[in-house]
Amino acid sequence: MAISGGTSSAFYAILLFSLLSAVRCLASNDKKTCMYAVTVETTCTKGADTSNHVSLRFGDTNSNDIVVRRLNSKHVRRVDPLEPQVLDDMSRKPFQVCMVDQFQVAGKCVTSPICYLYLKLAGADDWRPGFVQVRSLEGPHLSSNYFYFRRVLPRHVWHGFDTCPGKVTPFGIKRNRKV
């Protein structure tokens, strides 16, 4: 059975269009971004504040890893530590003594509750965070618990907590997530 030249080029054009549509659909599903509200408290200890760059890494048990290279630049507002009311919406220097800062972060979507969080401090001065919490704006069931630090962070290394479920084996704890 022979197909004329015009018909075969139309057939290939339709095939190419449908393949491109499928690729675009797959790419859009993988590239979906979600919004997160990150709350960071700096302790009230003298010298606990910092002007250094702070990086954040968090994720879930399904290997959805979100990395924020410079948290300082995404400051949204200052929150009263005793009452969750907004004190100002003006941009200011984050990570001051006795302050709670809130940041808005966009990243890959998590599919299970956030169970690990790490901070990295880059610079010369020390910083003593109190707690960090990540709230998923897509659903409260995906938000993290509070991660309590209450000590000076080491510089230039990821430091934090991993509360993801795992099984104890004779060779150590086996995690369900990929590292």
From TrEMBL:
From what superkingdom does this record's organism come? Eukaryota
Q: Does the keyword Transcription apply?
A: no
Q: Which SUPFAM superfamilies match?
A: Lipase/lipooxygenase domain (PLAT/LH2 domain)
Q: Which residues form the signal peptide?
A: 1-25
Write down the Pfam families for this protein, in alphabetical order. Answer: ATS3
Q: Does the keyword ATP-binding apply?
A: no
Q: Which InterPro entries match?
A: Embryo-specific_ATS3, PLAT/LH2_dom_sf
Please give the coiled-coil regions recorded for this protein: none
Q: Which UniProt keywords apply?
A: Signal
This one is known as Uncharacterized protein
Q: Which species is listed as the source? A: Citrullus colocynthis
